[in-house]
Write a structure and sequence with these properties.
The complex is a heterodimer of chains A (about 80) and B (about 260). Chain A is α+β, with helices and mostly antiparallel strands and about 80 residues long. Chain A is elongated and about 40 Å long. Chain A has a two-stranded antiparallel sheet with strand order 1-4. In chain A, strands 2-3 form a two-stranded antiparallel sheet. Chain A has helices at about 15-20, 55; strands at about 1-5, 25-30, 40, 65. Chain A has a single domain, classed as Alpha-Beta Plaits, CATH 3.30.70.3270. Chain B has a single domain (about 25-255), classed as Rossmann fold (3-Layer(aba) Sandwich). Chain B has a seven-stranded mixed β-sheet with strand order 3-2-4-5-7-6-8, sandwiched between helices. Classes of the chains: A alpha+beta (about 80), B alpha/beta (about 260). β4 of chain A pairs antiparallel with β1 (about 1-5) of chain B. Bound molecules: thiamine diphosphate (TPP) and iron/sulfur cluster.
């Protein structure tokens, strides 16, 4: 199972990952972070396919993707 | 749990100062990932420009220099000629590279310096508050073109890659875009290829990355990506414009 790990301190709430996710499982938190941004949030982790597009599109290195078990490599990055 | 997408060791883990959604951060990350993947982090020297990315030396986890406005290719030339064993790259904006630094860019390309230039084209001067750049689109509103860029008065935007492609010296010249995830995957491959050409001692390599500046374009990051796709890509065609394997250019490459 893949797992999206978002650093809510680094996130600036630009929503690039929200638009990039093909499964549409990311959104914004309703609470501000220390810098005054609404950080991104995983809304429905079980539907994640582990494509890493959220992490690839993040300008602030705030997203990492973890994995338990095996997974197909979907594309070459 | 194993990390399948892990933050690169090519960047220092500090928060970056860029505006929310600015693709400078993504381009930093891709360059740093390539440096790490190619195993050249210890021998890499980056040169930061003047512009929003002026303090890139605080972010890249390799040796860094900072050049006077537009002079990064000249500094890169000096470093590479004295120490050809180092992997030298410059990271420059369009106000830096295509305006005040045009001469350095063209001459370094013409000499075929074995360095890599990362050219971030966001069609505006970001750091100074959104003035018109040589790459600003016709009709685009900036603080110095409040009625939109008038091409009769300021000419058309410069296509730097096509300009350099007319030079006889072999080079790797490519244009990619950072506006969405699909184009980022392609951009990463182009950046990797550019560094490989340098490591093989083949040629001058130049990657133009179309980038968004939501702050000075006055758009949200999502709207800015749309604007880039609809307005900039038709004028700045993506792809490899020249590779070192191409023969001499007989006819200038004109996209439009
Ligand atoms: C010699 C000199 N002239 C002018 C400036 C003012 N200046 C600072 S940044 C900049 C333009 C930066 O634009 P760009 O290269 O597009 O980078 P961006 O900020 O958009 O990333 C200018 C003109 C300067 N610092 N030094
Ligand atoms: S002003 Fe523009 S180029 Fe500079 S950090 Fe902000 S969005 Fe990026």
């Amino acid at each position: 199972m893949p797992r999206v790990l978002i650093d809510s301190v680094l996130c600036k709430g630009c929503e690039r990952c929200v638009g990039a996710c093909p499964q549409r499982i990311l959104g914004l938190s309703k609470e501000l972070n220390a810098k005054g941004y609404y950080p991104a949030l995983v809304l429905h982790q079980p539907r994640c396919i582990g494509c890493c597009l959220c992490a690839i599109t993040c300008p602030d290195s705030a997203v990492q993707v973890g994995l338990n078990g095996n997974q197909y490599k979907l594309f070459e990055y | 749990m194993e990390l399948v997408f892990k933050n690169t060791t090519g960047l220092v883990s500090v928060p970056r100062h860029y505006c929310p959604g600015c693709t400078h951060g993504v381009i930093h990350r891709m360059v740093a990932e390539v440096i790490e993947e190619l195993g050249v982090r210890e021998s890499a020297v980056g040169i930061s420009p003047v512009g929003c990315s002026v303090i890139a030396y605080n972010y890249f986890n390799c040796d860094m220099q900072q050049a006077a406005h537009g002079r990064a290719p000249a500094l890169a030339t000096g470093i590479k000629r004295v120490r050809p064993d180092l992997t030298v790259f410059t990271y420059q904006g369009d106000g830096d590279l295509a305006s005040i630094g045009t001469a350095e860019t063209v001459q370094a390309a013409n000499r075929g310096e074995k360095v890599t230039v990362i050219f971030v084209n966001n069609a505006i001067y970001g750091m100074t508050g959104g003035q018109m750049a040589p790459t600003t689109m016709p009709g685009q509103v900036t603080t110095t073109s409040p009625a939109g860029r008038d091409v009769n008065h300021c000419g058309y935007p410069i296509r730097v890659v096509e300009l350099l492609a007319t030079l006889r010296t072999p080079a790797y010249l490519v244009r990619v875009s950072a506006h969405d995830e699909v184009h980022l995957v392609q951009a990463k491959q182009a950046i990797r290829k550019a560094f490989r050409y340098q490591l093989e001692g083949r040629c001058f390599s130049f990657v133009e990355v179309l980038s968004i500046c939501p702050t000075n374009w006055g758009l949200s990051p999502a709207e800015a990506s749309q604007w880039l796709a609809n307005t900039m890509i038709p004028y700045y065609p993506l792809g490899e414009i020249k590779t070192p394997d191409d023969g001499p250019v007989t006819e200038a490459h004109h996209a439009q």
